[in-house]
Queue: 4 jobs
Job 1
Amino acid sequence: MKVLIVLTSHDQLGSTGKKTGFWLEELAAPYYVFKDAGAELVLASPLGGRPPLDPKSNEPDFQTGATRRFEADSEANTALSNTIALNTVDQADYDAVFYPGGHGPLWDLAEDKNSINLISSTLAHNKPVALVCHAPGVLRHVLNVDGNSIVQGKKVTGFTNTEEEAVGLTNIVPFLVEDELIKNGGNYSKGDDWESYVVQDGLLITGQNPASSSEAAKILLKALTK
């Protein structure tokens, strides 16, 4: 069982001068769900090398058992420092793909042709794809074989407009995940803000926020073992 985890390479929060990147819990929690189940993990990003960490995600308030375990794990940190470039990835080498969020993916992965092709090709080959928090936004340009949006008519979730409002970035992000999923025909639903909420529609698994990361990974594992 081989799982590819795709991370952002984007580190600028719009024109604010502040840093962004991937959200640590959204990598760490799924990483250990997969690792503890015996999966082989490969990390990728558009530029390769060490992807940028959203500095906020490593503040004390956002640390968890999984993030502390990851920080102390030399093997995990070596993997993080040496992500492979997304343009070298072939979906045929993997059984499933997982996308952590953070705000970074809204700028790069959402527009990245390699990411778009990876998702459409993985799903077309009957393999599951899971995305959490802001990462469902990277589905915005992914199409089915029939040319329609990959989310059209599908049950999906992702970071809510009210959660974005709460972090004060509604007018900074290039688009709102909730609005984009609805605009593309997704059957969008959500749970309470900041609580775990995951939706599965066939091979497509989406989680609402950081708290949903572990559950999304567990559902991806179940999809793999069916």
Note: The beta strands are 2-6, 40-45, 84-85, 96-99, 129-132, 155-156, 187-188, 198-201, 204-207.
Job 2
Amino acid sequence: MTSSPSQPRTIGILGAGRVGTAVARQAVQAGYEVKVATAKPAEEIAMIVDIITPGAQAVDAAEAAASDLVVAAVPMHKFRTLDPAALAGRTVVDTMNYWAPTDGEIAELEADPRSTSEVVQDFLRGSSVVKTLNHIGYKDLEPLARPAGAPERRALALAGDDEAARAAVGTFLDRLGFDPVDAGPLAAGRAFQPDTPIFATTHSAARMTELLSEACALTAR
């Protein structure tokens, strides 16, 4: 059974790049216990975590993977470095984007008609993958966060095949300072991948809902 508590308390961040550290800082600000890991031993990243993400804890990847929610913030071309066994039974937030000009073409993604998150879900078969946080720039994550009900609060879409996992991730997004908009199954994540009207643009929850509906209508044709 996938672990997807409706009120997650611990957040594991796999990846200490710009996205991972921005999410970590905002999660600390929101009151979560945050654990950051990379492929390196915890002691090798402890100093940089203390400096860049004060309040977060540097841990080994296995410990981060045991958190209530796990944020995958590695480059898309490295998604197979994630450990399916360690992440089995966990809710995994997929923040990754496929950037062929930067990462080079990934043959399996070029040939696969599914969304990238569906490919990730197939790899992490024992986990429940939820796509979100990929369509906001890491530089915007902290300055654009707003309390619930605040004017001009930005919405973030999320998609996943497990309803309980989506609810847990929605709670997480809300506490980070954004209005979560549930797009439904993981395949709907295609609507906010790169080169879509939603990607890297700011929308209210109402407008985000409209854009997702329009995208789903186009896909159904």
Note: Residues 10-220 form a domain with the Rossmann fold fold (CATH 3.40.50.720).
Job 3
Amino acid sequence: MMQTISTVAELRLALNNKPNIGFVPTMGNLHAGHIHLVNLAKQQCDYVVVSIFVNPLQFGANEDLANYPRTLEADCEKLKAAGCDIVFTPTVREMYPQITQSAAGIQLNQSMTIQPPAIANDLCGASRPGHFAGVATVVAKLFNIVQPQTAFFGKKDFQQLFIIRELVKQLNYPIQIIAGETVREASGLALSSRNGYLSAAQKQEAAVLNQALQSIASAIQSQNTQFESLENAAKIRLNATGWLVDYVTVRSALTLLPASQTDKHLVILAAAKIGNTRLIDNIELTL
């Protein structure tokens, strides 16, 4: 029977002496992509913990923290059906005990944070300063709370996955990171909690983002390694249909640095806004 636990003390008690814990950290508003990770955890681990926590530390001043969709009851139903053992639903105060509240708003007072590598300031990090420091810090806290043997993250957030792998490697966490494949709609649109913001017409248009990446992938597989030209063509295509492009770029999948002619493991990444909704996607290629 699935347990819902909201305090660190109770969670640690429940997990005491549990073997082979699999952990799926989420911000809730769960979709089939999250459940895919839970299913992976069920296959590989004896005990599965899913956290649902909308982390204020990773949201910028003008981002949608207050409006981020919170669907806890529906999320718990999905997790129960998937066979999750524990849902960890901490409050902000439970995760950030130093919190203070004043007329100016909430202050987390988390003065100890994880400083991610320089790549965190590129790609999504260029337009979201501090975002990945917030992600790395909350994931480090959750790893210390849950102490899993294995943790599961989706490939859709490829830069996040890269930074979490570096966190585990460089800080010597005894945790295996398993990456789940991106789950997509029939149109090719990657599932995302932010898709709920899209109108029906925007959702149809959103599939074009993946199509643009597929075009680049096809060209590269046909020996076209003029990466900058391919990137620019995709940006022009998206801008022409009303997108506001943040980036389209071909990178080394091993370093996330701009791809060179000799790289064999590539990832094509994009971030763009349709209306007010920012979507990301990527495609991996092995040559």
Note: Residues 3-180 form a domain with the Rossmann fold fold (CATH 3.40.50.620).
Job 4
Amino acid sequence: MTPPAPPPLPHPFQRLPQRLDRAEILDEQVGVSPDQLARSLAAMTTVNHWLGGTGPLLGHLRRLVRSHGLRTLSLLDVGVGNAQVPRTLQERLAREGVELSWVGVDRSRPVLRIAQQESGRATDLVQADGLTLPFPTESFDVVTSSLTLHHLSGAQAEALLAEAARVARRAVVMSDLERHPANYLGARILGLTLWRQDPITRYDGPVSVLRSFSRDELLARARTAPFRQVSVHRHLPFRLVLVGRTD
């Protein structure tokens, strides 16, 4: 069984539409095999590593750790995927003398099976919807996510941010793409080169850009959440990092 053929993508040299309301193949996972799913999640790991995903998250966590003089940090990652992001954060902070413990949440059971296989852990992986997190208030120091917000409608993004603010003792730090014509063109070029043998990522990558928020849109959504202070930072190339302080 193969995924159904998706609708055509907008031409990269046309004016981009407003935020696109279109599901990605991995949102539904219809006809997606475990190998295809693992390959697509691995592609996102590559994007996070080389195109400004994990690095900016780490930088904002470092600032939080230093401002509070922390040596331990508990973290909840929403939309954990293959768990590469929290594992990388854990490894990098350990080199700096900070012990990071983390729990990963994803609503997809097949995704969590891949996370379990790649991380070698199961007890700290929870199947749950980020809009209704199954944790008490202030359960974690920090709530993070990477490439999760663009999968949500505006109202759903607001609900996720409110839930994350409820669960976080200190801060919410979330990274995602910025909707921009050059970012979309780059995703289409990756589809013709790096992702040419991966039809799911070849389609989902550009759609992810079209579904993403602009900086002003994301900041407007974040201001509905009960943060003490909130900001959205631009990082090259075309990454947004939302930082909402709750302490």
Note: The domain at 25-245 is CATH 3.40.50.150 (Rossmann fold).
